[in-house]
Amino acid sequence: MRAFVVALALGLAACTQTPQSPPVTATRVLELSGLQPLANTVGLSPDGSLVVTGDFEADLIARDVLSGTERWKIRVKPRREQRRLDGIFFSPDGSLLVPTGHEAQTTEVWEAATGRSVAVLDIGHCRGVAVHPDERALAGAGGGTSCVVVLPRGKSLRSLPHGSPGAGVFV
Q1: Could you state, in chain order, the average pLDDT of each consecutive group of 10 residues for the chain (171 residues)?
Q2: CA 58 from chain center: how many Å?
Q3: Whole-angstrom Cα distance, residue 51 to residue 36?
Q4: Cα(10)–Cα(133) distance, rounded to whole angstroms?
Q5: In sequence order, what are the residues at sequence separation of 6 or more whose Cβ sits closer than 8 angstroms to the Cβ of residue 120?
Q6: Distance between the two ends of the chain, CA-based, in angstroms?
Q7: What are the DSSP calls for 29-95, one per residue?
Q8: What is the pLDDT of residue 52?
Q9: What angle do CA 140, 141, 143 make, to 5 degrees?
Q10: What is the pLDDT of residue 157?
Q11: Residue 126 pairs with which residues in a beta bridge?
C-alpha cells in the first residue's frame, strides 16, 4: 500500500509541472494577408510549390509559393449553384486538385498546374476525398454515401451508404 501511495504522489507531482513548448523551427516562406473575400480553406501541393486558397464565394486561387504570384483563378460554381469551399485536396502526385464543400451538389476535379476542369462528379455535400496514389481513382464522402470514382471519366465504381449525412468515413 505504501508503494502505491508513493507512486500516486509522484504521478500527481509530475502532472503539476508546466509543459515545455517545443521550439519554433519553421521558416515563413509566404504570407497572404488581406484576402477578400476571406479564405475559408487552403491546400499545399505535395512538392510545396503551389498553394491554393478557397473562399466563401467559391473562388479557387493558385499561387506560386516562392514568389507569391497568382498562377490561376477560377470560380467553382457548377450548375450555377451558390456554395462556399470548405476543403482542398491534392492528388499524391500533385497533378489534380479537388475542392470540397458541404453545400455543393457536385464535386469537381481540376488540373492543379492550369486550373483546367477535369471532371464534375456526382458526389454532393462532399466533406473529404482521397486520391489513390497509383491508379486514377478517387474516394469521396458526402451526403450519407461514400463513392469510389474512376478519373477522369467520373464513373462511379461503387457507392457505400453509411450511418448518417455528415458521418465520418475513412477510406
Answers
A1: 53 60 72 70 93 87 92 79 82 92 84 91 84 82 79 60 47 38
A2: 15
A3: 16
A4: 48
A5: 78, 106, 107, 108, 109, 154
A6: 48
A7: -----S-SSPEEEEEE-TTSSEEEEEETT-EEEEEETTT--EEEEEE--GGG------EEEE-TTSS
A8: 94
A9: 135
A10: 57
A11: 142
Backbone angles phi, psi at 78, to 5 degrees: -65, 150
> CB-side exposure of 154: number of CA atoms within 13 Å?
13
Neighbours of 106 (CB within 10 A): 20
**How high is the pLDDT of residue 165?**
47
CB atoms within 10 A of CB 59: 18
pLDDT of residue 160: 57
Backbone angles phi, psi at 40, to 5 degrees: -110, -20
pLDDT of residue 78: 59
CB 151 within 8 A of CB 109: yes
Separation CA 35–CA 28 (nearest Å)? 18
CB 126 within 8 A of CB 142: yes
How is residue 121 written as a grid cell? 462528379
Question: Residue 94, by phi and psi: left (phi above 0), alpha (psi -120 to 50) or beta?
Answer: left
For residue 77, with 0-12 CB atoms within 10 Å meaning exposed, 13-18 middle and 19 or more buried, which class applies? middle
